[in-house]
Amino acid sequence: MKAVEIKKGIYWVGAIDYNLRSFHGYTTPRGTTYNAYLVIDEKTALIDTVKAPFSRELLTRISSVINPEKIDYLIANHVEMDHSGSASAVVEQAGDIEVICTAKGKEFLHGHYHDSKEWDIRTVGSEDTLRLGKRTLSFIPAPMLHWPDTMFTYSASARVLFSNDGFGQHIATPRRFCDEAEDWNVFSEAQKYYANILMPYSRMAAKKLDELKDVAVEVVCPSHGVIFREKEDINRIVSLYKSWAAGESKEKAVLVYDTMYNSTEKMARTIEEGLLIEGIDTRIFNLRVSDISDIMSEILDAKAVVVGSSTLNNGPMPSIGGFLTYLKGLRPRGKIGAAFGSYGWGGGAIKAITGELEATGFELPVEGFQTKFVPRSDALDESFELGVQLANHIKMR
Ligand code: FEO
Q1: What does each C-alpha distance from 308 to 81, 86, 325 come to in angstroms?
Q2: CATH for 250-396?
Q3: Predicted local confidence at residue 183, as pLDDT
Q4: Which residues contact residue 8 at a Cβ distance below 8 angstroms, ignoring those fewer than 6 apart?
């Protein structure tokens, strides 16, 4: 296990987690990496660590270029445990080491690692720098991207931005750079990452991108996935982030449903036909066999979300309840929606879905539609019409 030199004196020393399949509920079918970076000058700084079970891998990679005892500073850009999990191991190995983080980072380190009260911790903000020798690092606080403690670290002389979770992707690969990896893989995983981790903080993301627009960057080093070093790749990921942060969307609809005896599914497929005939790019997901983090990736750049459910105990199916809770937490902006479904006697699913979509901030230009038991041809005609009407609203926006 060797370190990988990114620029002269700057090394990737992270860990590759091929087996991760869930990141607190976000599915990671391609695993992930925990990226840590070593900056060697007269003094040596380690930027972030790795998840605790990978401490040995981190220390082995560091040892391939320098004795870990020689690390002078541990910069903790973000305390979430996938990045700080090996901090105690590094501090123990290095002995005389100063930990650098934001004030919130210090508070969060104390909350996670109770031995950190004994650590030598320096808190930094945007005015502070850390001189390593010829190289000086500066800090860019990035609160709520995606925790209050988050900051980026920047090397002006090397033009390298260590952006932590920003620009990350959950991909486990032995390839370190975007230009070495499969293109579709990197950018679709970056979209899923943004949708599931950063979407609620899009206003802050837009502001930060604007602040960084005049910063000279030749290499972007996120804390997950591959590193961006080609100008074309940097421009592409930054442009995608600007679009996502601005809430830009396409003539696209995402249709999500759960069904008990296929009545709601028949309606879903007929609404889909109405949308498709009007030329709307439509993605349809049965929640029984689909993953909500993949669905969120599709919702990120869609104009409309249509949610359908059978009625169970006067409400929607539990899968729909869970999906709507997750959706509300991620706070998508500027979208329209519609509700549909089936029931046997009392109903209730449509009312609950409509209420949740409104509470999430969706505009509902088309009235929700429900059918009793199995939909007859007139109910399917109405479903088709719902799709067509929604398509027209999508095109008007
Ligand atoms: Fe990759 Fe917020 O931790």
Answers
A1: 37, 44, 15
A2: 3.40.50.360
A3: 62
A4: 158
**Could you report how far apart the first and last alpha carbons of the chain are, in Å?**
52
CATH 3.40.50.360 boundaries in the chain: 250-396
Residue found under tokens 């995402």: 254
Whose alpha carbon is nearest atom 3 of ligand 1? Answer: 80
pLDDT band at 229 (very low <50, low <70, confident <90, very high): very high
Percent of the chain with pLDDT over 70: 99
Question: What is the Å distance from ligand 1's center to 80 Cα?
Answer: 5
For the question of whether the overall pTM of this predicted structure is more than 0.85, the answer is yes
Q: Rounded to an integer, what distance in angstroms lies between the CA atom of residue 354 and that of residue 349?
A: 9
Distances (CA, A) of 284 to 108, 252, 258, 270, 376: 40, 11, 11, 11, 22
Sign (positive or negative) of CA dihedral 25, 26, 32, 34: negative
* The CATH homologous superfamily of the domain defined by 4-245: Ribonuclease Z/Hydroxyacylglutathione hydrolase-like (3.60.15.10)
Ligand 1 centroid–CA 348 distance in Å is 38
Average pLDDT taken over every residue of the chain: 97
